Amino acid sequence: MASTSRAIGTTQLPGYETLASHLELLLTSHSPSFIYLYDPETPRIAASAVRSVLQTVSEQEPLVHLRYACSNAVACFTPRLFYDSVINALARWTPTWEDGCQNWPGTSADGQRWNESLDTFVHGLRDVYAQVQASVHGSSSQDRGQVKGKAKARVMQPEGDEAYRLVLVIERAERLRETMPDLVVPLTRLAELAQLDIVTIFISDVRWEDIRPSLGASPEPFYMDAPLISKQATLEMLESLYPTQNYVPGNIHQDTYDPALRPLYSHFLETLYSICSPFTHDPYELAYIAAARWPGFVKPLLMLQGRTSPRAHCNADGRKNSRQAGDLSDGEEELSEIVPPTEDTRIRLTRIFTPTFTAALEALYPRLTNAEHWARANMPDEAMLAALAAGLRPGIGGHVDGALGSGVDALPRLAKFVLVAAFLASTNPPKTDMRMFGRGRDERAKRRRRRGGGPRRPKAGSTGAGVKIPQHLLGPTAFPLDRLLAILGVLLEENDAEARPLAPQFTLPGEYTDMEISRLAVYGQIMELASMRLLLRASPDKLESTPTYKCGISYETALALAKDVGIMLNDLLWEVV
Amino acid sequence: MSAYAVAKETSDLDDPTKSCIYIAPGDELEEVALSGPYSPHDWRDLPDGYELRMQAYKEAWTQCLRHMQSIIQALHAPVAKEVVAQVKSAYMDTLPGLPYAELPAMLVFGGSSGLYSDIIQQLEVSVEVEDDCAADEAKSDITASDGAIMIHLYPGDFPNLTTAMKSIVTGFIDQSTDSGQNGMKRRPAASLATYDISVLDAWYRSLDKKPSLTIFLHDFEQFEPAVVQDVLHIPELPLVYILAMSSPPSPSFLHTTYPRSTLALLSIHKFSAPLNVELIDELVEKTFCDPNFEPAVMLGPGSLGFLADFVSRHTASVDATLTIIQLALMKHFTEPLTIFIESSTLGLRNERLAGQKLDQPESQPFRDVLTSRLARSTSNPDDVDEDAISLLRSVNAARDGFYRKLRTMRIGLSVMSIVRQAIETERENESSMLDTLIAALRGRANRDVRQLATALSKCNAQQLQIVLQKLQALYDGLQDSDARDAEMDAHVRVSGALTELADTDNASVDAEKSRDPLVARLAKDLGEWLFGYLEKHLIRLDDGPLWDIWYTGSAPFPAELINPAPRPALVSALAHPNEHAAAYARLLRMYIPQDKAETGSADQDVREDEGEDEDGLPDTALLFRRYAEAGRLVNVYDWFQSFAGALDGRRRRERRAAVTSSGNAHTHGVSGAVSNGKGKGRARAHIPMEVDEADEDAGRSEEEESELGEDEDEEAAEAWRIEVRVRFIRALHELDYLGVVKPTGRKADHVVRTLYDVVY
Is B579 found in the same domain as B499? Predict the structure, then answer.
């Protein structure tokens, strides 16, 4: 629903014209029964392009009567879901709650079910086909004397030869291999199986070679490759997204999306594209960033024009998805008031905001925060407005508002020790533990190894094959729980003994620590950390075997934690990072 | 503790057709119904003291808990409100121009069950409110929020995609029972699958109102990422996700675990619950330092110290805090005198009746203790009246005195907290209110007070104004009239200073350099006043008469209950079973009623001094002793040999002892086979004659009891060998059950030790 109608390109998509025309040609003439559309970058956009082609073709119906169904291999994760959704879509049947979400009953009244197996599905397809024929036949015979009579006459098709075609579009087809592996081959040969004119289109960002069933069970598809979207096409696509509705959320200036600002928007997009395109081409991503930045970008301008009215106005028909062009009549009187900025203002504005584009990219591309929040947090402030008015160039830093302050620092003291111990256990080889942590009689003097490099570091120019990759580059290794506790004991004994409350009942050296590391709270802490995924459980969740873990924190985090509790982490690492 | 080989079950044991035999726990425990918990003070308790104290405890704890819960709720309220607001506006305030509709995901970090229930409650409340003013909302189409339907899902609901979708779909549909279509006819085969999102879609379309659909995922880290990822790809409905995260926000779990393609579908809103450490600090402050809330029992530095340590070291969780406070209270109420906490009526209608109760002979020990305690606290012991009524009166006086002191202390602490917050610097931020409270209770707050007074005397006018205004508000807000009277001087002083400050302000409006001499003088005076005032208010609570009724003092907290060390406890029990058994026997004796104790009295004579003597050890401990001396791998056969040798030796010695004291007809059955099977350590304690009986805890047969003759025939020897084997197997399995041995996958007849460094 909302997602489809709001997606890019309900009409012709810029950049996809050639693909669209080819597909249209294929679908209206003799089409191959299996088409594979490969789009490595933006399969979602490709899918919407295909959908729009199908929409137009099925509406025009010049030569062929087309029914189509779009399904998604993620959403249809069982054969039954797939059968249901396809048959219902082809039959243009919407299940309703009132009649118990019944599926399309078929042409016969006895209510067959099509979702039982592939066989019934094929029968369902044939039934749909028959229904399409019947309905078209019925309606066309009605139409003939009326409006369409002329068109029909021009096509000059004998009535019996009218072409009927079903089209099945499957997005994210690569997932079929996991969810419904048995269905891949039948789907590619659906036309053969059903003896109907059915076209199956797979859309995927994976090549057909990688998902092709073995032994040549599937026929070769007709390959189509999505084009790389050019800069011009991207910009056009983005421009088509300029909101035309009148409803604007409360915290954004009400004239932000005034049609008069459209030229400025194009310039804005161009700047945005030039800054962000080295990092991402995806029109969706660019549109996301643009949507977040635009309100802040135009705000100074609007403020300068004295449009400070805080907004309390919302139009009843300002639905978000009324995107169709020509819906501008409501904003007519406001349009006259907004003046597009002069060239000079525009350049100044752009120059001021340029650094914030990068900041927006950094925060929004990994989705550290959401667009709306970012837009709100990065509204230009008063000082900036003043600077703009005065023609100065203020320093503006679009701050990334990702971190919430309370990170791992807020963990309890013991948790920090456990994490540092886990990091050591994951990084140091087990054989070195005795040397790193073993404390003999005169241990402390011996323990200090020479600084600045691990003892195992190979000499330069030694045998190439024997060069060992440092452990911290290989990722954490798993360690058993006992080893973690033992290292934890050493760390606690050396760094925590003074901070503990007094316990006169422990007299032997190390007895107190021994007691501490076997307490319930330590085990509880380990479980807690594992549930936070700061420790990763490496063994299956069973009782019988020794539990093993991996460290889930980075060197930097471990270093910060160690510093916090007063451990010299680098002294305890076998290979100094 | 279970009684094996109870006579009546031997028939079952001999029945070869049964593969599984139920051995009932010894009926001994059932006889000794636990009438009440063990307490070392029982001898001086009132006859119904336990029940009365339980009652008093319940009241005290309920009062405290209710107060704390309201504080927690108040602290959580802002975050909960924020989350609810965001959930409600999730599909309204979207930014125009986004390329596609996003799925709102609210990440709540560090929340606790309290916060979640607040959120849920607020969501529900807001729904009701919206229902009420639906008419108002109808006019604005944009805010077409028709409430919210919420479902809760846990990691167990998401084992795979099908189940996950089914939980979501049916969860929502089942929630709306009022839609009235539950009785609709469905032909399962011919309609959509129950896990089809289209069902939810159809259901949603059929609704008159369009509520927002909220999905609350608890323990989000535990969900299988592959499943959640797919679930997030499917929806086409206005769903809102609330993700309860337990991981810290800064290496973000969501961002490290889920691919960008999934993240791009979400509109991520982050919320952080208040930090638990701060929350607990505030909780303690508002519970124990609030001048207007009087806790029935004041916790002392012993318990609060444990709390502070536990919170900073182990888990800063509100629930743990509540448990610790509750446990401290519970322990406090084991003291018989705490019956006087609320009133001196001893659960009766008035003091006259209570006095009569005290006069009864069974209350005598209690009364003696009370008298001596009162006598100790007065300078002249002769003053203490022997009359019961006047005893109770002095208790009343002591209670009033203590609470007055406590109130003074609390006011002093509040003043301290106010001043500190107002002139807080980064340096002082380190010590929390909890630490200050502990220091003050220990009588070690002098340095803090001095620092504070010095800091105050260096304040500028603005800070002074804030401090004084807050202090005035504090004094104005005192609810207790006695307290108001007591603090009248201070109140006047503060008001006076405030007007003085206002005057100086008026006099020197242009005083840019904030330290004009008048203010400086005022600040200095105030600093001195504060020092004296706090000195007077932060008094020791543990020197009045009977103070330990209302104050836990430096009594240690029973830390083992919160944070036990199971493995060392297990090892020490295995290594020194007799000490543990003796302690248990002592404990048991405390609550076995005298009349019932007779039958078991022989058993209870535990020899506590048989420590190193191997003969006294039960089988499991005997086996464990050999285990402790073995290497990493234990050869089971050698182990058995050693065990059998020890048993043989013991048997020989016992037979010899039996022979020397022969002639005595052994009369078994008095203390009975019924009771000898429990605790093996205890079962050892017998006069030599009965010793053989006690040895047989591994299920022996009746006829063997008679085999005590010197001429041991072949049959008896064979039976003994079998018995040794059985006892070994049982002991071995017990050790296995305790987890101290583990089978090695490689070497036959060997087991691996899991415990090393056992100290005897």
Answer: no
Q: Which helix (H) or strand (E) holds B752?
A: strand B750-753
B194 touches chain A (CB under 8 A): no
Taking CB atoms and an 8 Å limit, are B234 and A75 in contact across chains?
Answer: yes
Q: Is B318's Cβ below 8 Å from some Cβ in A?
A: no
- Strand boundaries in B264-314, DSSP class E: 266-272
Q: Does B181 touch chain A (CB under 8 A)?
A: yes
Residues 226..285 of B with a Cβ closer than 8 Å to A: which? 230, 233-234, 236-238, 246-253, 255-257, 260, 263-264, 266-270, 272, 275-277
Give A381 or B651, the one with higher predicted confidence.
B651
Interface of A with B in 381-400 (CB under 8 A): none
| Partners of residue B232 in chain A, C-beta under 8 Å | none
ipTM: 0.76
CA distance A264 to A272: 12
- Please indicate if any CB of chain B lies within 8 Å of the CB of A410: yes
Cα distance between residue A551 and residue B757, in whole Å: 28
Domains in chain B: how many in total? 3
B96, B268, B306: residue with CB nearest A367? B268
Q: Between chains, do B313 and A414 touch, taking CB under 8 Å as contact?
A: yes
Distance (Å) from the C-alpha of residue A388 to the closest C-alpha of chain B? 25
State the virtual CA torsion across A454, A456, A460, A463 in degrees, nearest 10. -160
pLDDT of residue A308 exceeding 80:
no
What does the pLDDT look like over B272-321, one tens digit per residue?
887 778 888 888 888 888 888 888 888 888 898 899 888 888 888 888 89
* Residues B453-486 pLDDT 10s: 888 888 777 778 888 888 888 888 888 788 888 8
Give the single-character DSSP code of A213. Answer: P
User: How many angstroms separate the CA atoms of A248 and A257, rounded?
Assistant: 8
Residue-wise pLDDT tens digits, B521-562: 888 888 888 888 888 888 888 787 888 888 888 888 888 888
Q: Are residues B361 and B439 in the same domain?
A: yes
Distance from CA of B624 to the nearest CA of A (A): 20
Establish if A503 touches chain B: CB-CB under 8 angstroms: no
Domain boundary among B240, B274, B308: B274
More confident residue, A4 or A499: A499
When CB atoms are compared, the residue of B185, B237, B568 closest to A518 is: B568
CA–CA min distance B275, chain A (Å): 8
**Domain check: are B225 and B318 in the same one?**
no
Q: Does A520 touch chain B (CB under 8 A)?
A: yes
Kind of pairing between the strands at A222-225 and B266-272: unpaired
Return the residue of A nearest to B195 by Cα: A81
The boundaries of the domain holding residue B352 are 299-375+383-549
> Do B458 and B585 share a structural domain?
no
Closest CB to B275: pick one of A243, A410, A413: A410
- The shares of helix, strand and coil residues in chain B, as percent rounded to the nearest 5, are 60, 5, 35
CATH class of A2-225: alpha beta
Contact of B102 with B238, CB cutoff 8 Å: no
Quote the CA–CA distance of B499 and B520 in Å, as a whole number: 15
B452 and B314 together in one domain: yes
Same domain, yes or no: B305 and B269: no
Taking one residue from A and the other from B, the number of pairs with CB-CB distance under 8 angstroms is 252
| Cα atoms found within 13 Å of the Cα of residue A436, Cβ hemisphere only | 27
Q: Which amino acid is at B475?
A: Y
Query: What span, in angstroms and rounded, lies between the C-alpha atoms of B284 and B301?
Result: 13
CATH number, domain containing residue B152: 3.40.50.300
What ranges do the domains of chain A cover? 2-225, 231-390, 408-457+469-572
Q: Are residues B623 and B519 in the same domain?
A: no
Q: Which residues pair with A72 in a beta bridge?
A: A171
Rg for chain A, CA atoms, rounded = 33
Cβ of residue B191 closer than 8 Å to a chain A Cβ = yes
